[in-house]
Amino acid sequence: MESDFIAWLRRCVPAHPRLPLGLRDDAAVVSATGCGDIVVTSDLLTEGVDFRLHDCQAAAIGRKAVAVNLSDLAAMAARPVALLVSLALPRTGAATLARALYDGILPLAAEFEAAIAGGDTNTWDGGLVISVTALGELTARGPLRRDGAQPGDSILVTGSFGGSLLGKHLTFTPRVREALALHARYELHAGIDVSDGLSLDLSRLAAESQCGAAVKLAAIPVDPAAFELTRQQPAGPSPLEHALADGEDFELILAAAPGEAQRILQQQPLDIPITCIGRFVPQRGLWQENPDGTLAELTPRGWQHRGREK
Amino acid sequence: MESDFIAWLRRCVPAHPRLPLGLRDDAAVVSATGCGDIVVTSDLLTEGVDFRLHDCQAAAIGRKAVAVNLSDLAAMAARPVALLVSLALPRTGAATLARALYDGILPLAAEFEAAIAGGDTNTWDGGLVISVTALGELTARGPLRRDGAQPGDSILVTGSFGGSLLGKHLTFTPRVREALALHARYELHAGIDVSDGLSLDLSRLAAESQCGAAVKLAAIPVDPAAFELTRQQPAGPSPLEHALADGEDFELILAAAPGEAQRILQQQPLDIPITCIGRFVPQRGLWQENPDGTLAELTPRGWQHRGREK
């Protein structure tokens, strides 16, 4: 989608008393009377853009459709509550395909204790479309937001980046448990999940926080798959470029004050590594920090053309 | 979709503590910790099945995608809170089409005070798919359910039935205000909205309530559009047959004890008529009540082949 449509939509959708945080995070916080706040997010996956039915098993596609939504809940530090799954299925073999999709959907829903709260199953003459909505609940800490990073905060990331196309884009574990554990134990200022690219999503978090981000490129944890991609395509991007721009890593970027970040880094409370890759700075934009401490502009790269609404 | 897939799915989706009512109503009630109950429903509309882009204006399609979900909230007597709108758009003219869809979506959302709480806007090589999720909140009366009708209860309906294809299927007003007003003022036992056909949806409500429904055919309020359809196609169904089977009337079927039903019928508290079309009976199934009081079997008809999950 063209980004001017997204801009148009943002202008047309008025501020609403039901949306205390507006529409600037990975998921929306919705206020219901006598009920409090609930976190909601939707992702729609289409054949040919997000997956090819011939390249991957249907169960893996169903799993991914749920996992990307759980990753959005993780970015808000929300606990999964329920999922709604709507399918547009090609007529031929529709029931078989639907069952195979649910073979991937149901175990992940069970793993994260999310109820399947309905949806809509249809057949049509087109390709496969999967639309999932996830509902989450907040802990006493409230939502983790995109707009809370402060100049001086450390940039922390979970896991490693790049080369997700070789498999991780289908098999990743949404960082729900990690987000909840960190949010409960430490003072986090902001968070986002990396769906469209480390550099692009980091620049978004910085922009929402009205500051900039300076990255030490050498500190970025590059996934072995990024090296493998470069080995397969030597004329293509370097492993570091893959890490910065590939997207679909579904790891977390977090902001924390330097002292708190130091505690997290020393304690390493997760089963996966947490790495500091730089710091937030007053100068708006994305930067790389040279060894001598000077900053040079870094262009955010990623899946911008997907034009997701949020 | 084949109905055995739906049956398979129901078996595979286990009972869940988050779903106090299970998945047998028009929308699901989801329990969130520290938040209470929220009502959720999803409907997905596809080009060629639910609409043809050449036959109707895009704004009308966008409006309908929201309205069918609001109608599901009405069936539960839930107050609309928020909507998530996900689109799979054909690449050519995607932004123009998306804006036109929202020209129908936004006014209806505003009319029913529902926030647009996000969604996902994508382009692809296929046709138009619109997936909407609606969130609603319950009043102090709790949800109106499908399973509360009792033998002896009157069958009440709002508005009139049949011939929706001539226009009402796009222009209908979801009966949210009507459901909330009736649920607040009277003791309703059960409710459902008519999406797939008066006779089919009535038989579903009766089945969930573990009783039967006996209809006085002469009492059914037949819409003028049903007569017009029969005039256009004299060899086709009669106006009454249209009323029983066409579907997409998006009116309400309600169950109330005879005395309460009498109060409602005398007071006629809505801007649209409420009619009694029969009574619930102990004998399971759908029946027509003859003038002499005997019952004859009536076959439920409607859009069963759409195979919606719920």
Account of the 3D structure:
The structure is a homodimer of 310-residue chains. Chain A has 310 residues and is an alpha+beta fold. Chain A has two domains: 136 residues, 2-Layer Sandwich (60s Ribosomal Protein L30, Chain: A), CATH 3.30.1330; 153 residues, Alpha-Beta Complex (Phosphoribosyl-aminoimidazole Synthetase, Chain A, domain 2). The first copy, chain A, is 31% helix and 27% strand. Chain A is built from nine helices and twelve strands. A seven-stranded mixed β-sheet of chain A has the order 7-9-6-10-8-11-12. A five-stranded mixed β-sheet of chain A has the order 1-2-5-3-4. In chain A, helix 3 links the parallel strand 3 and strand 4. The termini of chain A are close together. At the A-B interface, helix 1, strand 1, strand 2, strand 3 and helix 3 of A face helix 1, strand 1, strand 2, strand 3 and helix 3 of B.
Offer a quick outline of the entry.
2 copies of one chain form a homodimer. With 310 residues, the first copy, chain A, is an alpha+beta fold.
Measure the end-to-end span of chain A: 12 Å
CATH superfamily of the largest domain in chain A: PurM-like C-terminal domain
What spatial order of strands do you see in the largest sheet of chain A? 7-9-6-10-8-11-12
CATH topology of the largest domain in chain A: Phosphoribosyl-aminoimidazole Synthetase, Chain A, domain 2
Task: Describe the protein's topology.
2 copies of one chain form a homodimer.
Chain A: H1 3-12, E1 28-32, E2 36-46, H2 58-75, E3 78-90, H3 94-111, E4 115-124, E5 129-138, E6 154-158, H4 168-171, H5 176-185, E7 190-193, H6 198-208, E8 212-215, H7 224-232, H8 239-245, E9 252-256, H9 258-267, E10 274-281, E11 285-289, E12 295-297
Parallel strand pairs in A: 3-4, 8-11
Antiparallel strand pairs in A: 1-2, 2-5, 3-5, 6-9, 6-10, 7-9, 8-10, 11-12
Helix pairs in contact in A: 2-3, 2-5, 7-8
